[in-house]
Design brief:
The protein has 2 domains: 110 residues, Urease, subunit C, domain 1, CATH 2.30.40; 302 residues, TIM Barrel (Alpha-Beta Barrel), CATH 3.20.20. The chain is an alpha/beta fold. The chain contains 18 helices and 20 strands. Strands 2, 3, 4, 6, 7, 17, 18, 19 and 20 form a 9-stranded mixed β-sheet that branches.
Length: 471
């Protein structure tokens, strides 16, 4: 359905076509704006990395001119996907867990042995795969020890990265008690030992927000899951609010652990948060595998945003107390983003399928358009970037994906289903970040894929050897 011209910017008073840096044309544009519009035979103009105009192709060419044109050949163009929660330093550990079964080695040993070089290699490998799968950014929740090593990947790959302070917590014993398979002495030795140490880590990455055009941004993060005291949470809450960024933390991954906390608190956990003023529009919770029906309105009322990790939720659905309500949250107005967490069972391009499966398994199926929105606009909102990213609209940054119109999945019947659920990396023709092309004909322009894969493999094998894992 063709759209109106509400996103169009009128030409200059002289009546002459305006110069811009790039015109993308001959496209079927999925805007993912408030109206979820589809622009058939559409085009948009890009200037200074942002969308200057978006409309029917004839109208754009009538008012804009550029030395650089990109012909989408009738393919679908949509906002870049954003992964709002990934433990990026564990990307090279995707298949190592089975080797730890029956041994004394845990994933905690792997994390505790990470070097800056390991974290850089892992993030660079993930970025290579992200871009090929149509992603333009990812968010690490504070689970890297060397933020500078990961931040360097942004300019190398041409991808957006959101970072926060490493492992901010003042009660790591809660993690050791409830998820012992994630911890080890060498890992916990790198966490803050006291509340004062945790407080000193808060805000250490916020300097990255000084440059508005930087590909790396920062937020305030707590590890969460009862590893932070009310005093530490309040300090992080106030810091995030004061700097106009989001506060994120893990919450409700293990339903049984949440119920255990609630028995001690003698009230539902979200009610306890509300009573202390801990719910607010600048808060994002990750996981939320136990959300009761009456808590949907509570989260919506306070403007809390939620990151949904479908594989983690599928693992929890068979456990007592799990109540998955991501689709209901999204329909109630809560911004929900779909995340990989740690992509151990599927590549990034399968997240749409995992989300559809998890929603169906919960008894609350999602539509393809809802999944597409959660992978773009919803994901951007969970890290506070919805004003700049997540949809194709006038003034927003030109982060977008061009899909190949001739792949087997591209019938054009349901673009959201075909591109955000079924379509994989083989459908990605091009990716642009800030108006700059970073993927061309499915290949990442600035990266030597062979060298990156080889380096990541060397890093992983060396790390496995250091902690005593044998293939």
């Amino acid at each position: 359905m063709p759209i109106s011209t509400t996103t169009f910017k009128e030409p200059s008073e002289s009546g002459q076509p305006q110069r811009c840096d790039l015109i993308v044309h001959n496209a079927t544009i999925l805007t993912i704006d408030a109206h979820n519009r589809v622009v058939v035979d559409g085009a948009f103009a890009v200037r200074d990395g942002r969308i200057a105009a978006l409309d029917a192709q004839a109208r754009i060419f009538g008012h804009y001119t550029s030395d650089t044109l990109y012909d989408a050949n009738g393919g679908v163009v949509h906002p870049g996907f954003i992964d709002p929660h990934v433990h990026i330093s564990q990307y090279t550990a995707r298949s190592v867990l089975p080797l730890m079964e029956g041994t004394s080695v845990t994933m905690g040993h792997w994390k505790g042995a990470l070097t800056p070089e390991d974290e850089h290699a892992s993030a660079l490998l993930a970025s290579l795969d992200y871009l090929k799968c149509g992603y333009t950014g990812f968010v690490d929740p504070g689970t890297i020890f060397s933020p500078d090593a990961v931040a360097a990947v942004a300019d190398e790959a041409g991808i957006r990265i959101w970072l926060t302070d490493p492992y901010v917590a003042d009660g790591a014993e809660a993690l050791a008690e409830n998820l012992p398979e994630l911890v080890s002495p060498n890992f916990l030795a790198r966490w803050p030992r006291t509340q004062d140490e945790a407080l000193k880590r808060l805000g250490s990455q916020l300097f990255r927000n000084r440059d508005p055009d930087s590909l790396v941004k920062a937020f305030v993060g707590l590890y969460g899951e009862a590893t932070d005291s009310p005093e530490l949470y309040k300090a992080a809450f106030d810091l995030a609010q004061g700097h106009g960024v989001r506060l994120q933390e893990h919450l409700g991954y293990l339903p049984a652990f949440q119920r255990k906390r609630e028995l001690m608190l003698r009230r539902p956990l979200l009610k306890w948060f509300e009573e202390r003023g801990f719910l607010a529009p600048h808060v994002t919770f990750v996981h939320m595998n136990l959300v009761r029906e009456d808590e949907i309105s509570l989260l919506s009322k306070h403007g809390v945003r939620v990151v949904w990790c479908p594989w983690g939720q599928l693992q929890m659905l068979g456990q007592p107390d799990a109540q998955a309500r991501m689709v209901e949250l999204q329909r109630s107005g809560v911004a929900v983003g779909i995340a990989s967490d740690i992509p151990r069972v599927a590549d990034f391009d399968a997240l749409g399928t995992l989300a559809m499966s998890a929603a169906a398994a919960s008894g609350r199926p999602a539509t393809p358009r809802e999944i597409l929105r959660m992978r773009t606009h919803g994901a951007a909102a969970t890290v506070g970037a919805e004003g700049d990213l997540g949809s194709l609209e006038l003034g927003k940054r030109a982060d977008f994906v061009v899909r190949c119109p001739t792949t087997s999945v591209n019938f054009g019947f349901d673009p959201a289903l075909e591109m955000a659920v079924i379509g994989g990396r083989d459908t990605v023709e091009a990716v642009f970040v800030g108006g700059r092309q970073v993927v061309d004909r499915g290949q990442v322009a600035n990266l030597d894929a062979g060298a990156i894969v080889a380096d990541a493999h060397r890093s992983a094998r060396s790390l496995a050897s250091r902690i005593g894992v044998r293939a």
